[in-house]
UniProtKB/TrEMBL annotation:
Keywords, comma-separated and alphabetical: Membrane, Transmembrane, Transmembrane helix
Transmembrane segments: 34-61, 73-94, 114-140
Organism of derivation: Kribbella shirazensis
Protein's name in the database: Integral membrane protein
């Protein structure tokens, strides 16, 4: 399990760097502590989202009437390694299409594991994985935009 935690953290750092580096390039005057803080916070958030993807997919599959009880689906080094490797080689900011292909490949592998662990068809498992991934990404994006808006309001208020 420690190897999986390290790999999930590396994947989270890759995702965070893909979000923070474009921001730093647009605002060259940002201080180093702010950049490091953004990277650390982003790494924790993205790692939490990546770690919860199999759990969310398993939960969705559990809502189906034909799903038998079985052990919960978890990340394994063989499932997470392609995500980490491709994330390190090509940060997500290099291209949304490359990022989408990467997530599709990892999601397909996760769907295969979900299908074999739960006994549901691969297509249904792929739907659960896709809905879970989309829902998690949407939730993080909404929170990210809300925080950016709150921070922008704080910057726009005149100092008294």
């Amino acid at each position: 399990m420690p190897l999986v935690i390290v790999l999930v953290m590396i994947a989270g750092l890759s995702e965070a760097a893909g979000r923070v580096l474009p921001l730093v390039s647009r605002r060259p005057g940002m201080s180093r502590p702010v950049v490091v803080g953004l990277l650390l916070t982003g790494t924790l958030v993205e790692s939490a989202v990546i770690a919860s993807w199999p759990w969310a997919a398993w939960t969705l599959a559990g809502l189906l009437p034909s799903t038998p009880d079985a052990d919960r689906l978890l990340w394994t080094p063989s499932l997470i390694a392609p995500l980490v490797l491709a994330g390190v080689i090509a940060f997500p900011w290099l291209g949304p299409l490359l990022h989408f292909v990467l997530l599709t490949v990892v999601g397909a592998a996760l769907a295969g594991e979900l299908a074999s662990a739960s006994g549901i068809a691969w297509g249904v498992a792929a739907g659960c994985v896709a809905v879970a991934g989309f829902g998690l990404a949407l939730a993080v994006d909404v929170v990210r935009r809300l925080v950016a808006r709150i921070l922008a309001i704080g910057v726009l208020e005149p100092a008294v």
